[in-house]
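Running this now, will post back.
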Amino acid sequence: MLRAILGISIASLVAACAGESAQTLDADEIQKNLDESFGGYGSSAEQPNFGSDAVLAVPDLQTQFASHEAAPDSSMPARSYRVALLWGHFPAADDDSDGDTDATPATWSGDVSIDQGSIDVDRTLSFDGTDSVATRASPTSVSFVSETLPFVDGLLLHVTVTGEGPSPTLHFDTGVLSTDVHLDVVAESAGMIFHTSGDQGLAVVAWNDTAGACGGGVAYGRWVKLRAGAGTLRARFVGADGTDRGFAEGIWGHAPVHDADFVFGKMIDTEGKFTALFEGLYDQGTLHGTMGDAVSQNGSFAGVYADGFDAPDGRGAFVAKWMPPCSAL
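Update: finished.
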């Protein structure tokens, strides 16, 4: 679909970004590259983490608080979900403005639970200092202590729901925000951000992993605004259980020639070898598109974002789910 929107042939693919991290581009260069196929990215190998300290600085997922629980009755029919929860500075998207929202610290301590089944904690994000996950008292509940800033905190969960009831609900209850996350609704969408007063919010992406035949994973990191309608992204991407797969970076912005808001980028493994090109659209806090190589874009991605200046206080974050060709979103 995006190939048709752009009206650009594969033969015009250039390497405007090859050998140079997008983190060094200014807004004018980004807007020029938005008119190139895949934003100027090609399939060549790169330096590890694109040779960028900023890309490498995206925090990795940690196993310190990982825990795995068996459902009380494993003989019951079960549905399986992969869920990424990120919370902290997640204001409403404002990518078409030159303004920005200041980031503030917050205490998100509380718990996440489900009515029946079990919750495995595969990884935590930015749990440091006084942050922690309590010793598990029940397979259906996870209690945590979380102080946010300078980056968002988060959990990567594997949720198993037993029984044949309606759409399962994940209950998120903290001092900042209490809400119910309907897993099937989130799994069938790009993701959701539950906003609170001020700049705080909870971002959720999920997918139904019951078959588990193909799998996918999560990408997360910074969604940086240089000016209205022009910015960069940098991220880590991981497997469904949080296993490190490599890095991604890209550009995003409004392309006046096509009158559309595009995101383009490239994924590499931990050694810098080419993994995938991706292209998509973003709008009012959500993003979605395809991934693959320059010839075939059969994989897919979708997620949510909050734009922000490249400041050391945690502004500008995103989280997305990616799927290989056999598990299109």
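The chain has two domains: 2-59+217-327, 61-208. More later if anyone needs it.
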